Amino acid sequence: MRSISATMFTTLDGVVQGLGRPDEDTRGGFAHGGWGAGYDDEVLAAEMGKGMAGTGAVLFGRRTWQDFHGAWASATDGNPFTAHLNAARKYVVSRTLADAQGWANSVLLRTVDEVAALDEDLAVIGSAALVRALHTAGLVDHYSLVVHPVTLGSGTRLFEGPAPLTRFELTGSVTTSKGVIVAHCSRITAGGR
After folding, report:
1. How many domains does the chain have?
2. 63 partner at 20 to 30 Å CA-CA among 12, 24, 73, 95?
3. What residues make up the domain containing 79?
4. pLDDT (tens digit, 0 to 9) for every residue of the chain, 193 residues total?
5. Are 168 and 143 in contact (CB under 8 A)?
6. pTM score, two decimals?
7. CATH at residue 14
8. Could you tell me which residue ranges the Bacterial bifunctional deaminase-reductase C-terminal domain spans (predicted)?
9. Is position 193 within any domain?
């Protein structure tokens, strides 16, 4: 049975916008880009590595796919994440992209219904709008929430409006040396898990 797992880097107040660098996502005048700097450590790297070690394809929204494409497609740095991302099948969900050419093994999908029709495990990295749509459609089976000990007060949040009632159970957690909490949650289905 196919499974969709979403890894979301978030602040205590739920902001998921612009983790990596100041210019990553300035929509809405967001001025806190790069808020995740300084929180990396070996514990977080190992935890994210576990997620990358899983089989299956990677699923992106358009903005994240384009950002990752720019950063990873031509990288040759020996980073195991680079090798994994470049080798993996990558699905990008977009109504506006003309095609998914330019990054090996990329496939363009137009709708969440097309995602639902796929028969392979999928890992979503970032892509908040896509995750919200997948969650609303009842398609997210697992979350890995990487919660940073900071509040920003503004920015795109993981859930910006009502989300359907969905129950999850905490299946594991790790706290890093920098105070980041990685919480793994799995959806509870009507008959249990």
Report:
1. 1
2. 12
3. 4-187
4. 689 999 999 999 999 999 999 999 999 999 999 999 999 999 999 998 887 766 689 999 999 999 888 877 777 776 667 777 888 899 999 999 999 988 989 999 999 999 999 999 999 988 999 999 999 999 999 999 999 999 999 999 999 877 888 999 999 999 999 999 999 999 997 555 4
5. yes
6. 0.90
7. 3.40.430.10
8. 3-182
9. no
